[in-house]
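Hi support team,

I submitted a single chain yesterday and got back a structure, but I'm not sure I'm reading the token output correctly. Could someone confirm the output below corresponds to the sequence I sent? I've pasted both exactly as they appear in my results page.

Thanks,
R.
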Amino acid sequence: MTPEPHPGSTALVPLALVVNGDAVRVAVPAERTLLELLRYDLGLTGSKQGCDKGDCGACTVLLDGEPVLACITLAVDADGRGVETVESLAKGQKLHPVQTAVVNHGAAQCGFCTPGMLMSAKHLLDGSRTPTREDVKQALSGNLCRCTGYTKILDAVEAAAREMAEARGGD
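Hi R., thanks for writing in. Yes, this is the structure output for that exact sequence:
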């Protein structure tokens, strides 16, 4: 259990978490959000700071494999847990299949929603080998695209699912 500072205190709360496979130890104010920790303390700026109230999904990351809105998740809630950000998808110069599909389908317009979309799509594809279009819509329902490029985004996620299924031997 993480100790909580007295209300109004400027005391820092020590945290230990795993971010993109790397163990991280940091001390932050109790009110620091996970998004602020990632962007401002750890320099991981891929997750976007959009609405800051959990409406747009641009800040979506995976916390112990589940999508969360990092702008409304306190950093202390990630203590002892694993966080995956969009920076974790590519392995060196090799893009994750969903990243490749987004590029190939022209599914990124302004790109602001893309990191959150990618992480929600990754969660879906990690758990479903053959998602339907409805499954994809449901998985991305918490992610808003300002440019309304949904059709290409849905097409890209479906293409990534097919590619990943083929790589697994056609499951």
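A quick pointer for reading it: Residues 97-167 form a domain with the DNA polymerase; domain 1 fold (CATH 1.10.150.120). Let us know if anything else looks off.

Best,
Support desk
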